Structure formats: C-alpha cells, structure tokens
C-alpha cells in the first residue's frame, strides 16, 4: 500500500468513527446501495452525487434545535468527504476535514486569517489538495507529509470547501471568506492572510468553494435569489447534492473535474471504472466504512 493510500485510510477512519457519521450510517447505507444498484459502474458512482442531498435528508428530524442543526452540519461535512474521496480514490488528491491531526500545518497556516494579531480559520471545513510527487513521500505520518509539502508549495492545487446544510442562512459566509482570501492587499493594516510566511498565494492555485444540501426546497432557489447571487462568483464554485442546475448550483460530483481534471485520463468516470478493475473491494470498503 502506498503512503498516500495509508494517509487516505487514516482520513476515512477518522470520519467513520465520528458519531456524526456512524450514528446515521445504518440509515444512509441502504439508500446508497439502492442508488448504486447491484453492479455499480463508474457512471453510477459519479451520479451518486446527484442523490446526496436526498440521502442526507433521510437523517433529518422535525427537532430543529441547535444540537440537531450542529450534528446535521457535521454529518453533511462527513458525507462530502466520504463521496469526494470515493471519486478521488487512486489519485494523489486528498480530501479531509480540516484539523491538526490530518491536515498538514503548512496548509492550515496558509488559511489562517489574523485580525489585530488574533488568528482564526474557523470557516475552513474541508481541505482538498493534491500532493505533488507523492511517490517520494517518506511515510504517511502527518509531519512527514507536511515536510514534503513545504518543499512543494508552488506545485499544490488547493480547494477549501465549506459545507453547510442551510443555504439561505449561510450563503454570506463563504462569499465574505472568499473575498478575504482573494484580496491582494488590505487597506486596514491589522488584517492579514496566512502566517509563518505562507498564504493562499503560495500555492499553484487556491479557491474557495461551497457545498450545501440545502435544507429548504431547492425549487425555491432562482437565478436572482439573494442566496444564489451571494455565491454565484465564488472562486471555487457553488455545489449541492442535486443534479446541476445551471445558474444556481453545480452537482458536487463536478468539483473533481472543475479543479483536478488533469488527474483523470479519459475523464473521471473512466478513472473510477479503472479503479474498480484494479481493486474490486475499494467500493465495498466505502460502503461498509471499513478503514
């Protein structure tokens, strides 16, 4: 097993053990199996992205207190990580919840925004990045991966994905953070992006994306809806777990090709088919959360 695959196993094991995912997996698993069919192809796996919102909403209850909303948000985040890693299997692209244990320090430093010397990066939900020359990694330990990436900063493609269940209430958050990350210079001197000499400008490419369920009926969103306009020009794109609706949102399965198309010779669906041929158990691992 390569060090990249070992690293991915750690990421998948982490989300598999979270209550946010494990407590709903018995509900989601049969829905996922039904959506994929008996002998899933690359096309079936790709199109699963169009059903993620419907699958997620089988978890929702009428109890909309703060703990339920928080748990639902974490579950949507985990479902995005699960699905995107399924698409990116057999590549050097990593999808991880942003935390100290699994995302290299140099990447987290680039996302840190300081206000009057007070650092914050609380709106960094999911980090998606390519490991250049992954074949020369020394191990799957986070410190070794960090050391490797520190020497490859200008070759890294990085997407920060914010995952929220409610679009109306949260659309202004990714809009404002995307503006902050893409401002070249602030007129206010006590605001800065990045620490320890690293910023989003250090990468080959950096973009900020948004993924939403949404919890309100998607039919309510029009091209001129305020929530849609707020995320219309996000550098990383606006996504949801439904089929693409042009001018409103793209399906989450489009994120892979939008940002990492060069990784997939012959296209993403062909890549998934080849992954299934190489290792027929890989899909089964995802279905069973066996990491």
Q: In a few lines, what is going on in this structure?
A:
This protein is an alpha/beta fold and 291 residues long. It has helices at 3-16, 19-36, 42-47, 52-56, 66-87, 105-111, 142-150, 167-170, 172-182, 226-231, 254-260, 268-278, 282-288; strands at 93-97, 113-115, 118-120, 126-130, 157-164, 191-193, 205-212, 237-240, 250-251.
Polypeptide structure, described:
The chain has 13 helices and 9 strands. With 291 residues, it is α/β, with parallel strands linked by helices. Strand 7, helix 10 and strand 8 (237-240) form a beta-alpha-beta unit. Helix 1 packs antiparallel against helix 5. The longest helix has 22 residues, at 66-87. The chain is globular.
Features:
291 residues; 6-stranded mixed sheet; 3-stranded antiparallel sheet; 44% helix
SS class: alpha/beta
Uncertain stretches of 5 or more adjacent residues: 62-70
Per DSSP E runs of 2 or more residues, the count of β-strands stands at 9
What proportion of the residues form beta strands (DSSP E)?
Answer: 5-15%
Alpha-carbon distance between the termini? 13 Å
Task: Quote the average pLDDT.
Answer: 91
Shape: globular
Radius of gyration, rounded?
A: 19 Å
Fold blueprint:
Blueprint: H1 3-16, H2 19-36, H3 42-47, H4 52-56, H5 66-87, E1 93-97, H6 105-111, E2 113-115, E3 118-120, E4 126-130, H7 142-150, E5 157-164, H8 167-170, H9 172-182, E6 191-193, E7 205-212, H10 226-231, E8 237-240, E9 250-251, H11 254-260, H12 268-278, H13 282-288
Parallel strand pairs: 5-7, 7-8, 8-9
Antiparallel strand pairs: 1-4, 2-3, 2-6, 4-5
């Amino acid at each position: 097993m390569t060090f990249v695959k070992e690293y991915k196993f750690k990421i998948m094991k982490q989300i598999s053990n979270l209550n946010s995912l494990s407590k709903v997996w018995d509900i989601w698993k049969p829905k996922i199996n039904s959506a994929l069919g008996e002998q899933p192809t690359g096309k079936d796996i790709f199109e699963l992205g169009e059903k993620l919102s419907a699958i997620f909403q089988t978890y929702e209850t009428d109890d909309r207190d703060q703990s339920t909303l928080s748990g639902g948000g974490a579950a949507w985040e985990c479902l995005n990580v699960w699905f995107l890693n399924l698409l990116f299997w057999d590549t050097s692209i990593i999808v991880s919840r942003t935390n100290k244990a699994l995302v290299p320090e140099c990447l987290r430093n680039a996302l840190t925004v300081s206000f009057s010397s007070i650092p914050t990066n609380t709106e960094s939900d999911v980090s998606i990045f390519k490991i250049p020359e992954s074949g020369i990694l020394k191990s799957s330990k986070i410190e070794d991966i960090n050391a490797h990436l520190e020497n490859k900063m200008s070759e890294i493609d990085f997407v920060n994905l914010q995952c929220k269940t409610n679009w109306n209430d949260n659309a202004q958050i990714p809009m404002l953070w995307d503006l902050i990350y893409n401002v070249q210079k602030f007129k206010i001197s006590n605001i800065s992006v990045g620490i320890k000499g690293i910023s989003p400008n250090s990468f080959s490419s950096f973009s900020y994306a948004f993924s939403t369920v949404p919890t309100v009926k998607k039919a309510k969103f029009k091209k001129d809806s305020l929530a849609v306009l707020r995320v219309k020009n996000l550098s990383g794109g606006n996504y949801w777990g439904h089929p693409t609706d042009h001018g409103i949102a793209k399906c989450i399965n489009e994120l892979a090709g939008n940002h990492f198309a060069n990784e997939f010779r012959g296209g993403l669906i062909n890549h998934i088919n080849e992954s299934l041929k190489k290792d027929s158990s890989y899909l089964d691992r995802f279905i069973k959360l066996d990491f």
